Automatic annotation (TrEMBL), chain A:
The glycine cleavage system catalyzes the degradation of glycine. The H protein shuttles the methylamine group of glycine from the P protein to the T protein. The modification N6-lipoyllysine is found at K64. Its cofactor is (R)-lipoate. GO terms for cellular component: cytosol; glycine cleavage complex. Residues 23-105 form the Lipoyl-binding domain. Pfam families: GCV_H. CDD domains: GCS_H. This is Glycine cleavage system H protein. NCBIfam families: gcvH, PRK01202.1.
Length: 129, 363
């Protein structure tokens, strides 16, 4: 399982990329996509929607089950990855790249400090066994 | 830790994702459930189904015993090797389990029951056997593989014991041939052609490996579930239960009410139900809106719940979500399914959804 060091993480297996312009990109980790299995449907958040940190904001469905995606930080949704509509398997193939789920304009950039770094996320995975 | 089949080490070697199922540690998939599904529809796949339990039923009363025990009538089985699908009912007309029963010769039958229910089934079968001259022998010494797909039989043929090759290839659907402890049935749970093979547990790993070497794709329980759903085949515990009987699970065709004098367990309850009428319907659903159908989602018409999804999922062949559902008798052609609080439109269709690689419904 890869855990890129330049990203931040949550205990619920989302990743966050700081785009450096007040926005972030959010997706699910390689571990999450592997645990879910083949993805068959993604319900994206609406652009313009206001989210608070830990809000359930999207759903990914695998062959097995549906799983909520929780927004790692608060803000306004600025983009959703519409390409996932016809190709949810992109998340399985490239969880940290083409498989991004949405972008957010941060309402409080200091919330980024609450997220896990790669080392801490690796520990979360180790603790889950 | 659950029970392990004779092929557990092979599954681990292949990097299978292992899940707990019916008391067993079984492979869910070996990487991609969807790829495994397509392999069975397009070429061939092999499933370890050794968790299922063969039970040999032998003795002078084997026939009258099974005619009492099962809702379908084994007296229909005249030719050795012929198989029959049946429900085993409780006196209230609910389903204890569904099974396949093979006629092997006079006074000799073999039933294959589900893994999760095997102990319950055996206790029930023993209890019912008390007034009959019959012996029940669970065959845990046998492994069981399902080889399914358009290429399955030709891939398996050269790997069978020499004496079984010709008889196995000559089998008509729903017939079996046997030699020593090898038992080959032209049956399955995928909607494709193929074999289900019982063989001595000690020979299972070599046979499995030979099939893989011949290019047959190893497939897990995940693909088994999406394949059977596309084929419109019921799953015990989901589509029918001890509370919900065959007449409301699309299995009325498996209940032999004729001859009228055959007093099978559950008969009186089913007849009373039939007389009362107003039976719930068991239908297929094709989701026309966005989302994935799952068990227990409510089926809704004009804002009113009229039923429930019993098995749902994503169909890799149709690239749509499909389901089996139980509804009030008067369901029309259109309905909605409530997914996360939203009513998503669906169409009522007649299963199967897919057979022999081809769609059976219009999308």
């Amino acid at each position: 399982m890869t855990i890129p060091t330049e990203l931040k993480y949550t205990e619920s297996h989302e990743w966050v990329k700081d785009n450096g312009d007040g926005t972030v990109t959010v997706g699910i980790t390689d571990h999450a996509q592997d645990a879910l299995g083949d993805l068959v449907f993604v319900e994206l958040p609406e652009v313009g929607k206001q989210l608070a940190a830990k809000d359930a904001c999207a759903v990914v469905e695998s062959v097995k089950a549906a799983s909520d995606i929780y927004s790692p930080v608060g803000g306004e949704v600025t983009a959703a990855n519409e390409a996932l509509d016809g190709a949810p398997e992109t998340i399985n193939e490239d969880a940290y790249g083409e498989g991004w789920i949405y972008q957010l304009k941060l309402s409080d950039p200091s919330e980024l400090d609450n997220l896990l770094d790669a080392g801490a996320y690796e520990q979360v995975l180790a603790d889950e066994g | 830790m659950g029970s392990r089949t004779p092929l557990f080490a092979e599954h681990e070697r292949l990097g299978a994702r292992i899940v707990h199922f019916g008391g067993w540690d079984m492979p869910l998939h070996y990487g991609s459930q969807i790829d495994e599904h397509h392999a069975v529809r397009e070429h061939s796949g092999v499933f370890d189904v050794s968790h299922m339990r063969p039970v040999d039923i032998e003795g002078a009363d084997a026939l009258p015993y099974l005619r009492r025990l099962l809702a379908n009538d084994v007296a229909k089985l005249k030719q050795p090797g012929k198989a029959l699908y049946s429900c085993m009912l409780n006196p209230e007309g609910g389903v204890i389990d569904d099974l396949i029963c093979y006629y092997r010769g006079p006074e000799r039958y073999r039933a294959v029951v589900n893994a999760a229910t095997a102990e319950k089934d055996l206790a029930w079968m023993q209890e019912q056997a008390q007034d009959f001259k019959v012996s029940l022998t669970p065959r845990q010494d046998l492994a069981m593989l399902a080889i399914q797909g358009p290429d399955a039989r030709t891939k398996a043929e050269p790997l069978l014991p020499a004496a079984l090759r010709e008889p196995a290839m000559a089998l008509k659907p729903f017939f079996a041939a046997e030699d020593d402890d090898w038992f080959v049935g032209r049956t399955g749970y995928t909607g494709e052609d193929g074999f289900e093979i019982m063989l001595p547990a000690g020979q299972a790993a070599a046979f499995w490996t030979a099939l893989l070497d011949a290019g047959v794709t190893p497939c897990g329980l995940g693909a088994r579930d999406t394949l059977r759903l596309e084929a419109g085949m019921n799953l015990y515990g989901q589509d029918m239960t001890e509370e919900i009987g065959p007449l409301e699970s699309g299995l009325g065709w498996t209940v032999a009410f004729d001859p009228k004098e055959r007093d099978f367990i559950g008969r009186a309850a089913l007849e009373a139900k039939r007389e009362r009428g107003d039976l719930q319907r068991f239908v297929g659903l094709l989701l026309t809106g966005r989302g994935v159908l799952r068990s227990h989602q409510p089926v809704v018409v004009e804002g009113r719940a009229i039923g429930e999804v019993t098995s749902g999922g994503f169909s890799p062949t149709l690239q749509r979500s499909i389901a089996l559902a139980r509804t009030e008798p008067a369901v029309g052609d259109d309905c909605a399914v409530e997914i996360r609080g939203k009513a998503v439109p669906a169409r009522v269709v007649k299963p199967p959804f897919v057979r022999n690689g081809a769609a059976q419904i219009t999308l």
